């Protein structure tokens, strides 16, 4: 597909200029000023164009709980939020074979055809007994494996898994937590597990990514690890980065002001590599019955632009790095720059849009978020994938 976006502010981690961008056959072929084109044209006056967003952590609840979300509703939410690539967490159970789940997700996503997904598999819940053998059977279909609740794996098992991942060039994504500790000690559990996994990562050289960092002390551990190796990365969710609603039920729990200040420092000094949503749709009744989670995929840009750029004065280049360039590098896809040869996956933003987050506005099947009523500036108005407009607010 061929398309030209004209007279728009072009942003990636290393670019901030007004100009035009041309996509031919799904790829960026020219970026410049006053480009000539015979193709369909979008007038981008007063708008911003960035590489579309990449989410390293989202739950589409498919096939396990499709009343809460499925690949279609999740995809519709994703494109509304400016995303074209989602790393899906494993939302299946023991009744589904891993291979069957992978085949189901990939073929259903292909049929829907809106975004690209990668399906992670989980170690720690389903795969304790024969972890390495299962990785052997699927390692040509996956780029990463997730250690869910890392405390479920012994040092010996974790060491074996890390050596296997290093050998097969798989990224290990770690949800560092210890749910065996008494409630109220989630930060302690996160620090202990981050330290343990980090030390084993240093020993093995395994590429290790800590997802949804949620405590300042765990961030300090990660900063120390990153001084020793470039194989450690991490992400934070918008709700952990911004929300002070410490009673809102998400896992890991939201923290107070002191941690939030440290997260901002982590963004500024580069300790935090990426924003990931941990998009976790839950019905109201489920939340009342003790389940946790927050939807995030439709809100992440609005929240981050409002908080990081408008309130804290950070540049849009930083947002682009956190939401496109870095997560692309972490998961191993060529994306995140507005340069010739890169894919024509773009997000167009109206930076002046002012709106409040409404419960009624979600494409997702759920609206659980601590940000209802929160006023944001800036909104995704178009999402383009391989030169096709796949979301258009107008
Ligand atoms: Zn999650």
Order of helices and strands: EEEEEEHEHEEHEHEHEHEHHEHHHEEE
CATH superfamily of the largest domain: Metal-dependent hydrolases
Please work out how many helical segments DSSP would assign: 11
Distance between the termini: 21 Å
Tell me about the largest β-sheet. Answer: 8 strands, mixed
Number of strands: 17
Give the overall average pLDDT: 93
Brief description of this entry?
This protein has 394 residues and is of the alpha/beta class.
Topology (SSEs and partners):
Elements: E1 3-12, E2 15-24, E3 27-32, E4 41-43, E5 48-51, E6 53-58, H1 71-80, E7 83-88, H2 98-112, E8 116-119, E9 121-123, H3 131-138, E10 144-147, H4 155-168, E11 171-174, H5 186-204, E12 208-210, H6 216-228, E13 232-236, H7 238-242, H8 257-268, E14 274-275, H9 284-288, H10 300-311, H11 316-331, E15 346-356, E16 375-385, E17 388-392
Parallel strand pairs: 1-4, 1-5, 6-7, 7-8, 9-10, 10-11, 11-12, 12-13, 13-14
Antiparallel strand pairs: 1-2, 2-3, 5-15, 15-16, 16-17
Provide an overview of this structure.
- With 394 residues, the protein is α/β, with parallel strands linked by helices.
- The protein has two domains: 3-49 and 343-392, Urease, subunit C, domain 1 (Roll); 52-331, TIM Barrel, CATH 3.20.20.140.
- It contains eleven helices and 17 strands.
- The protein has helices at residues 71-80, 98-112, 131-138, 155-168, 186-204, 216-228, 238-242, 257-268, 284-288, 300-311, 316-331; strands at 3-12, 15-24, 27-32, 41-43, 48-51, 53-58, 83-88, 116-119, 121-123, 144-147, 171-174, 208-210, 232-236, 274-275, 346-356, 375-385, 388-392.
- The strands form three sheets. Strands 1, 2, 3, 4, 5, 15, 16 and 17 form an eight-stranded mixed beta sheet that branches.
- Helix 3 (131-138) links the parallel strand 9 (121-123) and strand 10.
- Helix 4 crosses helix 5 (186-204) and helix 6 (216-228) runs parallel beside helix 8 (257-268).
- The longest helix is centred in the middle third of the chain and has 19 residues, at 186-204.
- It is globular and about 60 Å long.
- It starts with a strand and ends with a strand.
- 52% of the residues are buried.
- The mean pLDDT is 93.
- The structure holds zinc ion.
């Amino acid at each position: 597909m061929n398309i030209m976006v004209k007279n728009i502010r072009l942003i990636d981690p290393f670019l901030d200029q007004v100009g035009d961008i041309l996509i031919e056959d799904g790829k960026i072929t020219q970026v410049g000023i006053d480009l000539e084109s015979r193709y369909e044209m979008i007038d981008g006056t007063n708008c911003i164009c960035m590489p579309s967003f990449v989410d390293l952590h989202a739950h589409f609840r498919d096939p396990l709980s499709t009343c809460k979300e499925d690949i279609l509703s999740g995809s519709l939410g994703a494109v509304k939020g400016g995303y074209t690539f989602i790393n899906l967490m494993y939302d299946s159970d023991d009744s589904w074979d891993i291979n069957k789940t992978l085949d189901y997700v990939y073929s259903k996503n292909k049929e829907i055809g809106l975004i690209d997904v990668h399906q992670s598999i989980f170690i720690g819940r389903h795969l304790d007994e024969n972890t390495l053998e299962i990785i052997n059977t699927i390692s040509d279909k996956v780029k990463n494996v997730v250690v869910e609740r890392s405390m479920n794996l012994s040092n010996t098992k974790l060491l074996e898994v890390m050596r296997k991942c290093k050998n097969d060039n798989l990224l290990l994504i770690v949800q560092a937590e210890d749910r065996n500790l008494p409630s109220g000690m989630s930060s302690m559990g996160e620090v202990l597990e981050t330290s343990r996994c980090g030390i084993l990562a240093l020993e093995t050289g395994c590429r290790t990514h800590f997802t949804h960092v949620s405590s300042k002390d765990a961030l300090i551990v990660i900063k120390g690890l990153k001084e020793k190796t470039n194989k450690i990365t991490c992400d934070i969710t918008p709700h952990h980065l911004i929300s002070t609603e410490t009673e809102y039920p998400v896992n890991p729990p939201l923290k107070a002001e002191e941690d939030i200040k440290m997260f901002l420092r982590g963004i500024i000094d580069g300790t935090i590599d990426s924003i990931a949503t941990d998009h976790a749709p839950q019905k109201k009744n489920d939340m009342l019955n003790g389940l946790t989670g927050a939807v995030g995929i439709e809100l992440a840009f609005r929240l981050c632009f409002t908080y990081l750029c408008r309130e804290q004065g950070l540049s849009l280049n930083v947002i682009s790095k956190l939401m496109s360039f870095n997560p692309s590098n972490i998961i191993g896809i060529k994306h995140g720059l507005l340069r010739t040869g890169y894919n024509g996956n773009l997000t167009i933003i109206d930076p002046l849009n002012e709106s409040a987050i409404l419960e009624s506005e979600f494409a997702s099947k759920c609206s659980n978020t601590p940000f209802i009523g929160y006023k944001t500036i800036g909104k995704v108005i178009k999402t383009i994938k391989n030169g096709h407009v796949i979301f258009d607010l107008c």
